[in-house]
Structures are given as structure tokens and as C-alpha cells.
TrEMBL record:
<dbReference type="InterPro" id="IPR036282">
    <property type="entry name" value="Glutathione-S-Trfase_C_sf"/>
</dbReference>
<dbReference type="GO" id="GO:0006805">
    <property type="term" value="P:xenobiotic metabolic process"/>
</dbReference>
<feature type="domain" description="GST N-terminal">
    <location>
        <begin position="3"/>
        <end position="83"/>
    </location>
</feature>
<dbReference type="GO" id="GO:0006749">
    <property type="term" value="P:glutathione metabolic process"/>
</dbReference>
<dbReference type="InterPro" id="IPR040079">
    <property type="entry name" value="Glutathione_S-Trfase"/>
</dbReference>
<dbReference type="Pfam" id="PF00043">
    <property type="entry name" value="GST_C"/>
</dbReference>
<protein>
    <recommendedName>
        <fullName>Glutathione S-transferase</fullName>
        <ecNumber>2.5.1.18</ecNumber>
    </recommendedName>
</protein>
<dbReference type="InterPro" id="IPR010987">
    <property type="entry name" value="Glutathione-S-Trfase_C-like"/>
</dbReference>
<comment type="similarity">
    <text>Belongs to the GST superfamily. Alpha family.</text>
</comment>
<dbReference type="InterPro" id="IPR050213">
    <property type="entry name" value="GST_superfamily"/>
</dbReference>
<dbReference type="InterPro" id="IPR036249">
    <property type="entry name" value="Thioredoxin-like_sf"/>
</dbReference>
<dbReference type="GO" id="GO:0070062">
    <property type="term" value="C:extracellular exosome"/>
</dbReference>
<feature type="domain" description="GST C-terminal">
    <location>
        <begin position="94"/>
        <end position="217"/>
    </location>
</feature>
<keyword id="KW-0808">Transferase</keyword>
<dbReference type="Pfam" id="PF02798">
    <property type="entry name" value="GST_N"/>
</dbReference>
<dbReference type="InterPro" id="IPR003080">
    <property type="entry name" value="GST_alpha"/>
</dbReference>
<dbReference type="GO" id="GO:0005829">
    <property type="term" value="C:cytosol"/>
</dbReference>
Amino acid sequence: MAGKPLLHYFDGRGRMECIRWLLAAAGVEFDEKFIETSEDLDKLRNDGSLMFQQVPMVEIDGMKLVQTRAILNYIASKYNLYGRDIKERALMTLVTLSIRIDMYTEGVCDLGEMIMLLPLCPPAEKDTKLAQIREKTTNRYLPAFEKVLKSHGQEYLVGNRLSRADVHLVELLYYVEEVDPSLLASFPLLKALKSRVSNLPTVKKFLQPGSQRKPPLDEKSLEKAMKIFRIK
């Protein structure tokens, strides 16, 4: 029997948190080996574990997977969060569904990247960046996802069943609320999706205090992460 996936990253959200969310939604228990120092990162680089010399890295099924999107694609396919099963996905209609899942996921990544990088923003630029995030959240990204849900009247974004796109979007909605809770006020279908996915037993467990879900970066955690990755 294969062991649990082992996640290599620092003790924070960054580019690993979406992987944690997807594993949790699939009901997959995982272990984490935190990178505490720049020397820990160098060790992974020097022993050949990191193809491109960077994390996140996930050990799963005897492989050491790198590149966040590749890892997410593997998990989604393995645990049936990518448009039903592989055989069905060969059919044209389900290939189309898979393309939609990819398209929605990329939209989530675009806005999520802006929010994720906000703590690295110089203080003098932070208000401008926040204004940009608010504007794009309410005028570009959330209206697009709300429109998708409204167009078909189903409970999930694609194929009326949970997919990775729903998991990634709900993760993003939590981050949007951290930026400004009022940003979701005009999007009732997205709020309903957030509630629906959050109440799935696997996700509900992940959202409980004491889980492997990571909190927002505080100054101390940010300083530690910058030292690990040698960011000046």
C-alpha cells in the first residue's frame, strides 16, 4: 500500500496551499516536511529532488513531482476531479468539459497570484495594489464565474459535479474575503458555491482549526520565508 503524499515546502501558504486544498477535497491524508532554512532548500537541490531547483515538491506514487500546475493536474486526474474518469474524458463532450475546467482554473490562478504576492508589495505601493485587486475581483473575475453558474443553473462549475475548478475557486473566495469581506456581496451564486463546497465532509474537516490548512502570512512568517528563498 502506497504511503501518504509528502509535501515539501515552507510552513505557509504560497504555491503549496492549492495542492493542500485539492488533496483535502479528495479526502487524501498527507504529510508535510517543512523547509525551515535556506540550507534545507539547498539540500533538496543538491540531492537531485528538484528538477528545476524550486519548490513546491510532492512525493507521491514513487515520484517526486514539481511545478504546481503539473502536481495539481496529477492529483485531479488520480482522484477523479478532472471531468469524470480518464476513459470518459476521451469522449469529445468530456474533453470539452476538461478544457473548461482548465480555463476556469487558470482564471482563478490569475487573481490568486495577485493576492498571494500582496505581502511582498512595498508598503508605498500596497494601497494601489489593493485597489487593483478589488477592481479586478468585482469587475472581471467574480462576475465571470457568477455568469457561468447562472448560465446553467447547476450546483458546480462544470458537469454538475465537483471538479478541481470548484475547489480552486472556493479557496480563492476565502482569500478574497480576507482582502475585503464585502467583495462577495454581489455574487449570491458564488457565495452558495462556497457554502456548498465548504460543507463537503472532506473540505469541512480541512477548514477546522488544527488542520494542515495554513493561515495568512504574518510579518514573522514572511521574514522567515524570504530568508529561506533568499528574497531581498
